[in-house]
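Input chain follows. Return structure tokens only.
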Amino acid sequence: QTSYVAGERSNLTTLSSSIKNGELHGSSLMARAFSAGPQPTTFSTSSTPRRGFMAGGRQPLVVIRFDRPNVPYQQALYTAVSKTMQVRPEANFDLVAGTSNRGSASEQAMAQSTIKKHTNGVLKSLMDMGLPASRISLSASSSGSVASNEVHIYIR
């Protein structure tokens, strides 16, 4: 009975994620973690070289640059994280919000407020995809080399 309920909960999560992504059928990150074999796990939503901040010198799995309104990051994020879950089902993730430390105090405060909103959106997207909140940690960083607000996702 417990496994039945867990299976149905997984199916509902999958259906919810599919509906939100405009797809008829799909699979949650946790369900996909146990499917077909390993694939490359590096993906970036930007094709330009990474010049921004890096948390502890680590290579980010995904970099989402919020340099324009309504950045369409959800599909790229889903693809990168689901491929990671296929290779490392036990993986945890670090979400690092990055802002520029250039400009006046009010410009920095506005940038921090904006990136907080964007980071919460990315976190919500990950949770909507079926990734438990307990596997995600949040942090923030500021750097003079960041041109626009960015969210980096790292594998922990």
